[in-house]
Design the sequence.
């Protein structure tokens, strides 16, 4: 089955994203259904979005469930065959969806198909040399993984897989897309990049800048927690320890260094890295949430 605007939903998980989400929505074709999952229970944002756009519905999560779980909420809600996962700090070009539709008609099967970042120096995919993956400027090409800020899921196909859950809800932030893609590959599903379909990712702008310090602390905690969890899940505890050993030593050294020179902001960052790592190593849940006061 090919993609059309009528059987496609766009799912955007947002959190304090009022400053960027409108430019994201405005870049999407008005014929396409959009589902916004707002993780801050922002009733004002919901009212504003649903009054402004006829094709958008906003679902408020009473608690911040994170990116993966937020995506899962949207996937459960939609009755469409395809879902384009977007971050709120992404904008589409005019022909982004058209090029994806055209490309889908030339592919025999795919689990995920994704546009390409317009920043060639920051590719939103990883090739697998073992599978002889190669970049192609014109035609869709197979990849190992795609970044989670823009990826189109073939829901009709993936819902038929046995015991396949979409995003691992144990992961609050970071590597949920790598975990998702790895499990897809284990199910022999193809993942493609469409080089003619381009998107722009502003990067790091999804949350209001006034929360920058607390968000930075949260990012450091979750990056370390997720890195150990991902490696433990797929490669075992011992290999996970090896993968994070350098991070653990580096975080310890830098924590004490910044403690000695009284740089409290840097000290807190490495304290969060240590905390995230240790909590993951001891099997604790990904519990940390940014503390934001309006």
Sequence:
């Amino acid at each position: 089955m090919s993609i059309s605007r009528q059987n496609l939903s766009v799912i955007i998980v947002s959190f304090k994203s009022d400053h960027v989400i409108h430019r994201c929505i405005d870049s999407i074709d008005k014929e396409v259904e959009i589902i916004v999952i707002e993780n801050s229970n922002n009733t004002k944002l919901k009212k504003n979005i649903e009054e402004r756009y006829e094709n958008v519905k906003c679902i408020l999560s009473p608690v911040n469930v994170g990116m993966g779980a937020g995506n899962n909420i949207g996937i459960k809600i939609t009755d469409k065959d395809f879902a384009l996962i977007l971050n709120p700090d992404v904008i589409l070009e005019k022909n982004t969806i058209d090029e994806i539709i055209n490309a889908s008609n030339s592919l025999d099967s795919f689990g995920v198909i994704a546009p390409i970042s317009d920043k060639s120096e920051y590719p939103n995919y990883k090739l697998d040399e073992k599978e002889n993956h190669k970049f192609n400027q014109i035609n869709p090409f197979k990849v190992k993984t795609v970044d989670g800020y823009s990826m189109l899921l073939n829901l009709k196909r993936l819902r038929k897989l046995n015991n396949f859950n979409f995003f691992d809800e144990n992961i609050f932030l970071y590597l949920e897309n790598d975990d998702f893609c790895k499990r897809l590959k284990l199910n022999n599903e193809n993942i493609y990049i469409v080089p003619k379909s381009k998107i722009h990712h502003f990067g790091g702008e999804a949350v209001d800048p006034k929360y920058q310090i607390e968000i930075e602390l949260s990012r450091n905690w979750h990056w370390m927690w997720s890195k150990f969890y991902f490696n433990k899940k797929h490669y075992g505890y011992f290999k996970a320890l090896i993968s994070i050993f350098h991070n653990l030593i580096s975080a310890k050294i830098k924590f004490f260094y910044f403690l000695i020179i009284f740089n409290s902001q840097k000290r807190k960052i490495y304290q969060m890295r240590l905390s995230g790592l240790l909590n993951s190593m001891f099997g604790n849940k990904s519990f940390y949430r940014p503390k934001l006061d309006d």
